[in-house]
Amino acid sequence: MSRTCDVCGKTKTFGNKITFSHRKINRSWAPNIRRVRALVNGSVKRINVCTRCLKSGRVTRPM
Predict the structure, then answer these.
(1) Which of 15, 17, 47, 58 could tie 25 with a disulfide, CB 3.0–4.6 Å?
(2) C-alpha of 7 from chain center
(3) Would you list the DSSP string of 3-62?
(4) How far apart are CA 48 and CA 63, in angstroms?
(5) How do residues 10-27 score in pLDDT, each as one tens digit?
(6) Dihedral sign, Cα of residue 37, residue 39, residue 42, residue 47
(7) DSSP assignment of 26-40, as one string?
C-alpha cells in the first residue's frame, strides 16, 4: 500500500542497493507519511501528509 502526500504528492521512489562487491539489487524508499487533522478550505479534514510538509509549515493545523 503506497500512500502519497496530499500536499506535495511525494510517493515511493525506486533505486538500487549496491553491495560491497558492487552488485545492484532493486529496492525502494517510502516517504514518511503521517495521517493528520488539517484545515482544508475552512473545514477540518484528515489528510496524509509527509513530515517535510509538516515541518515546513505547509499544513495548517486546527487549534
Answers:
(1) 17
(2) 9
(3) ---TTT----EEEEEE-TT--EEEEEE---EEEEEEEETTEEEEEEEEHHHHHHT-SPPP
(4) 19
(5) 999 999 999 999 999 999
(6) negative
(7) EEEE---EEEEEEEE
Predicted pLDDT at 63: 84
Q: Which residues pair with 50 in a beta bridge?
A: 33
Burial class from Cβ neighbours inside 10 Å (0-12, 13-18, 19+) for residue 36 reads middle
Diameter over CA atoms, the chain = 55
Q: Cell match 545492484: residue?
A: 24
Global pTM value = 0.79
The torsion region of residue 49 among left (phi > 0), alpha (psi -120 to 50) and beta comes to beta
